[in-house]
Here is the input.
Amino acid sequence: MNEIYHKCLEAAEFIRTKFDATDAIGIVLGSGLGDLADEITDAQIIDYADIPNYPKTTVPGHAGQLIFGYLNGVKVLCMKGRFHFYEGHDMKTVAMPTRVMKLLGVKALILTNAAGGVNRSFKPGTLMVISDFINYMGDNPLYGANVDELGPRFPDMTRALDPEYTALAIQTGKDLGIDIRDGVYMGFRGPNFETPAEIRFAEKIGADAVGMSTVPEILAARHCGLKVIGISCITNMGAGITGEVLTHEEVQETADRVKGQFKELIKTIVARM
Ligand code: HPA
Here is the structure.
């Protein structure tokens, strides 16, 4: 058996001894957006450290817990904290929890992140539903021997972000009166914020936002046939756009400012899915 698949199966088997996530909505909470987990009722929590084959997260603000329960009455399986490529994990490790979600029978996955705005009509605080993506991370979780048990060698990415769920997410944001947009997410390796020249490059090739996560998870999800929605919280404009320097504090401050809206958005989306 493929080694990656074996590791995913072990993790899923362990999680299944704690709860049944069949048909739950999977949610991955990005930087500064972890508070949504507090809204989950009847919560059962597993620390990543206790799950076989899961590494430890190293980023401040990423707690590293898998939380099962109900959000707005809907069964959810929420990852508070994710594994990033820039932490030094390889792509297969970064993508493992997505594959585990699939093995647990999750119905769809909502991936969230903090991102830099490239589209000049965005503002810090804009929420962007990801309509498509550019993999500029220089690596891919699907690289190497294909995990045939999960999906095909050459997966299609034409509708990588589920069109129906994406439309539902945008409509939900509009119904709630939120500054919601859609656009293309471009994944960089990080951990540095991009240079102004890289932001101009991103703009030219069609990106609306840049970030350091989510791309591996979308790739792994589409490979195994798991439907995905992506939502970026634009926490700052990309380097060079305003002339201000970028800091992780600014990212966290903006995420903090919009977290009320963000929570309402996700709660309403899951109820409509
Ligand atoms: N670039 C990359 N990742 C980010 C940014 C950014 O400007 N803001 C939040 N995450």
